[in-house]
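Researcher: I've been going back and forth with a colleague about how Aspartyl-phosphate phosphatase Spo0E family protein might be arranged in three dimensions. Neither of us has a model we trust, so I'd like an independent prediction. The organism is Paenibacillus oceani, in case that matters for your notes. Sequence below.
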Amino acid sequence: MRERRKSPSQAASAAIALEAEITSLRRRMEDAFVRCESLTSDDVMTVSRILDDKINDYMRMMQKN
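Model: Here is an independent structure prediction for Aspartyl-phosphate phosphatase Spo0E family protein. You can compare it with whatever you and your colleague have in mind.
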């Protein structure tokens, strides 16, 4: 099944929402680092993986547009 292409305004809204989510995840990761005092703590690593996925989603979205 083919994926429907989003209109420019839908794509822009999706990009803005993803940017906000990325910013929020970065803050969560920084907070986890401060709390755990380790870049390799489970909390930091969990948020980091989610953040990586969202950044990859954003990059794919930008390449399509």
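Researcher: What would you highlight for our discussion?
Model: I'd start with this: Helices lie at 8-36, 42-64. After that, consider the following. The two ends are 21 Å apart (CA to CA).
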